[in-house]
Amino acid sequence: MQSRELLKNQAYIDGKWVNAASGSTLAVLNPATGEQVGEVPDLNAAEANAAVEAAHRAFSHWKKTTAKERCTLLKRWYELIMANQEELAQLLTAEQGKPLAEARGEVGYGASFAEWFGEEAKRTYGDHIPSPSPSSRLVTILQPVGVVAAITPWNFPVAMITRKIAPALAAGCTVVLKPAEDTPLCALALAELAEQAGFPAGVINIVTTADPVAVGDTLTSHPLVNKVSFTGSTPVGKHILHQAADTVKKVSMELGGNAPFIIFDDADLDAAIKGVLISKYRNAGQTCVCTNRIYVQRSVQEAFVERFRAAVAELRVGEGAADTTDVGPLINLKAVERVEAVVGQALEEGAELLHGGERHPAGELFFQPTLLGNVNEQMAIAQQELFGPISTLFVFDTEDEVIERANDTPFGLAAYFYSRDIGRCWRVAEGLEYGMVGINEGIISNEVSPFGGVKESGIGREGSRHGIDDYLEIKYLCMGGI
Q: Is 399 considered catalytic here?
């Protein structure tokens, strides 16, 4: 980073940069090198409680601001994020590990939510309802839900934050954010830019901690928190749902996935290979929407596997800051050990190793881009979210068969398929039980489209015009005596 203005070493509560009362800190390490990037306060549950109280106080005046005022501040935040895109991207790569080109793209993607929801703030319309009585008038208005607790993951430490904070602020809510303990620095940098944009004290609060369970439980069960927005694993999401139930909070859940990627015999194989490469190996496979299971129709299996294996072999592994890197490190040693174990178990169960399969000599947290063939649904690897640079190949014969097999999972976040038959495109898209479907596309996320899943992959949608809905309450007004 050319400037250290955005590299903060304090949490942000009630408009103040603060240390932990205990003085304890959490070191943030570069996963590619092991070097310390910075350190942040290790706040406890009591300090998380203070952040909620600050957000509650700020809500009393923030909710009264006009939509235009909130729009103006969000657009200033967007402009500041984009003005600091390179600095933020370097910080993101340093603490998360993804290639710098991907980090730049994430910062731009993250900024887009501030711009989009700034505009949507002015479009939170109510309704006039035709009354059954001539002496009454019926209308609805939309009002902010209140204090929002947002809990975000480490794999997209900019975009997952703005995708939650921006609609909350646009609606008139205040926010307490707990970023992942592996990647808190981007969250603090965004808070610095929000302060520069002019957001009042207490509207945005960032709680950093090495104890995510205690702090998370405080936020998700706090009586002053009216909504919880969480992105992460399905087991943790289920726990948060239990925590939020006692006070009947509104919840948004963007949880795990097990995305199928289907290549039909009429697909453009060159396009399909390009699509599956970027879907699978982006961020070293550490995305909730990345491809987990690749289904190839039998008649094109041999041609696809030969070309796909060659493409995987050409991927360049290394430190994210290097311009030549395609695949960076995994986030920590636990992630590497898990990927290693998953591959080992698959091989024991009969999978065929077509490429990779081992740690990479680039460093302790690097794993080779891996390709496994001869995989079936009875193997453990087919039933879980991989979160690593592993591709698994399945063979299918018919359209109905592959739809049934693709749907045979408790998850339903994203799915992909390639075909040039327009009828098949409609049939398969409608038949797949997923919240998002990419048709001849490997990257489907943007700020204008609804992001979210079905089944155990989540509740609600983020982004798009629907993304502000869960931060608003509908109030019905019945006016009599007219």
A: no
